[in-house]
Design goal:
Distance between the termini: 42 Å
Number of strands: 4
Strand content: 5-15%
Number of domains: 2
Shape: rod-shaped
Strand order of the largest sheet: 1-2
Radius of gyration: 37 Å
Order of helices and strands: EEHHHHEEHH
Oligomer: single chain
Number of helices: 6
Length: about 190
């Protein structure tokens, strides 16, 4: 849970903090709530409500759309212009050199560049998808560890309560034997 670097302060690790927070959250749950929530439904809730996983899902969608967009030709450019217009009347007939120009241009990238850019964006989307799967698996692992720790703690507390009851019954039995003069004072102590 903590990393100890010689000559430095003790720093908590993120995995240990997440595990501790998960254990505390599970232990603070009421028994009625814990009984109604199964491990599978807890995993589903954790995966559905994690904002980091939601952000990665949106990033994957963005990169997939980008992969389609960069693999296409860029938009053509339309240019409109006027040259040698007189400034006093803006009449095209006043000077013989007045003219309007219309142009259409298209940029063609070098051969194969569009396909490579599309593949690169696809690979980036796949990398983010792999990151999403890894973080989802890590979240499920931490939840399962916390779940098992909570079950262990609950069972340990039940065992201690049962042992306390057995000890109290044993003391009562020893006292009863002592009172009936069949047991010794050492058995009571």
């Amino acid at each position: 849970m903590y990393t100890n670097i010689p000559g430095r302060f003790i720093q908590p690790t993120w995995g240990g903090i997440r595990l501790s927070v998960g254990v505390l959250l599970l232990l603070s749950a009421t028994p009625a709530w814990a009984a109604s929530l199964s491990l599978q439904s807890a995993e589903a809730v954790a995966l559905r409500q994690n904002p980091g996983l939601g952000a990665l899902t949106q990033k994957i969608a963005e990169l997939r759309h980008k992969a389609v967009a960069v693999a296409q030709l860029p938009d053509p450019h339309l240019a409109l212009g006027a040259a040698n217009l007189p400034l006093n009347s803006f009449s095209m007939n006043q000077q013989q050199m007045s003219m309007l120009s219309v142009g259409l241009s298209q940029t063609f990238p070098s051969f194969g560049k569009l396909g490579l850019e599309g593949q690169q964006a696809g690979v980036e989307a796949q990398a983010v998808a792999d990151t999403l799967r890894g973080q989802s698996a890590e979240l499920v692992l931490l939840l399962r560890r916390a779940w098992l720790q909570a079950l262990y703690t609950e069972n340990a507390m039940a065992t201690v309560r049962h042992q306390e009851q057995l000890e109290a019954a044993s003391v009562q039995a020893a006292l009863a034997l002592y009172r009936s003069t069949q047991g010794s004072q050492a058995e009571v102590l």
